Known about the structure:
This protein is an alpha+beta fold. Helix content is 29%, strand content 35%.
Amino acid sequence: MSDSIRKVKTIDLDLKDRLVGIQRVTKVTKGGRTFSFSAIVVVGNEDGIVGYGLGKASEVTTAIAKGVEDAKKNLIKVPIINGTIPHEQLAKFGGAKVFIKPASSGTGIKAGGAMRAVLESVGVKDVLAKSKGSSNPHNLVKATMKALLELRDAFSVARQRGISMEKVFNG
C-alpha cells in the first residue's frame, strides 16, 4: 500500500456519522416523475479516522444508511498533532477550493457547513478553514478529504526521505 493513500480497516472502530446533505432527486420516466433521495454522510471516530459516502434510495432513512455503509468502506487516517493539523493545505475538487490551516489551542473549528462536518469527524479541535468557489456540499466534502489526505506529519516525512527526525527540522 502506498504512503499517499492511508486506508483504514473497520475493525472495532467507534464511528460516529454526520449527515452533511440530503437532496430529493427526480428521474423523469414515460409514466411520470420518480422521486428518490440522495444523501452525503461523513463518518469518523474523532481520533484521526474519517470517511465519506453517498447513498441513494426511495426513502430518506435508507439513503442515509446506504451513505453510512459507503463511508465505512472509504476511511482514511489523518495525522493530528496537539489537536490541530501539521501544516497548511490547499485542495481543489471540481469547482470547490478549500484551504485549511493549523490554529493555536483554544481557537476551535473555524469552518462552515460541509467542511465543519468533516473536520469534526476527524477529531481536529483547532483549525482555520476557508472554502472558495463552489459551495456544493459534495465537492466541498471531497475537496476537504483530499486536503486531509495530503497532510503529512514529521515522522512520515523523515521515513519517506530516509533521514532522522532532527534533520527534518534542522535541514
